[in-house]
Amino acid sequence: MEKQAFKQSLKDKTIILVADRTYKKSSEMDLTGNNLEMIDDEYFHEISSGLAEISGKVIHCQNPAELIELRADPRSHIVFTVYGGTSSRNRMALVPSVCEGKGLPYAGANPYARIVCQDKWVSKIFAERYNVPSPSGIVIRERLRPELLEELSVPIMIKPNLEGSSIGISGDSRAETVSQAVEQIKKLGASFCSIIAEEFIAGKEVCLCMVGNAPRFSMFKMMEVYDPSDEAFFMNRPYSAEHKHKSYERFLHRDITELLGPQDKIAIQNMMGGFSKMDYMRIDGRLTEKGFVMIELTPDAHLGKDSVMAAAAFANGMSYEDLLFEIIYASQNGL
Hints:
Blueprint: H1 3-10, E1 14-18, H2 41-54, E2 57-61, H3 64-69, E3 77-81, H4 94-102, E4 106-107, H5 111-118, H6 120-129, E5 137-140, H7 146-149, E6 156-160, E7 174-175, H8 178-189, E8 195-199, E9 204-213, E10 216-226, H9 241-245, E11 252-255, H10 262-275, E12 280-288, E13 291-298, H11 308-315, H12 320-333
Parallel strand pairs: 1-2, 1-3, 3-4
Antiparallel strand pairs: 5-8, 6-7, 6-8, 9-10, 9-12, 10-11, 12-13
Helix pairs in contact: 2-12
């Protein structure tokens, strides 16, 4: 359907927002917990209000179970999920799986893409198929073999393999020696079943922000996350949970898309095509003198008004409501 006609038709539809609310402010979230991917009050109100601006009505489901019980008509309802969940490695695939089972249209990545992206190690293997570079590393699921760490160049980043939102990432995540890496793996192993260790990449902290499905994108931006008082702040530091959830007002975003090499862009677009339905994506990485290095694939990117995705939309000449509309349009029209 032509975009303007679809925008008008959306006024007659109901959006089902699936969001596991914490009913807390973001400042009240526990950085050591596993619920950082759940939805704080500010985010919920921003996204629900934004969706209400472009649709006829917005209703809320707290979890996939409520979505299963809801009587919804695929002709008049569209599901928009920011559900984060906790613990289960399959949690990000639950809502789109329910939608496909019930025949409901939905915005966002399909179950396959979400499962691949949730596992950082599998993501690296997937990216390699499309010549998208990522740091050398190993995954530890059961028994730690310290001799494998000796094959990696220090410093080494240690983080949970099956988490997002920087869960489990702190200043201690960067190990300067193999012995420090071993201790950090043991520490995280008490809380997480799968740990990834990979070479730390020095460079600009960047996010590739995309809306659409390959080969057509309504937005394709590379944004830098930076500290205006210290331009080199992230050059040799990890982007930790503290930075992302507690100190985020300290950091700004700027458009540096022109610094993305043409071959890197082609490789990333080809990788996006390998996922089929994605609709929107944030790829976190580092920009080095040799080019872009992928750190993490995030199909459930934060879409709050202060997010890097929103900053990319503003740099792209879009409003916040435009961003949400373009995601839904991509999901219904194969943009």
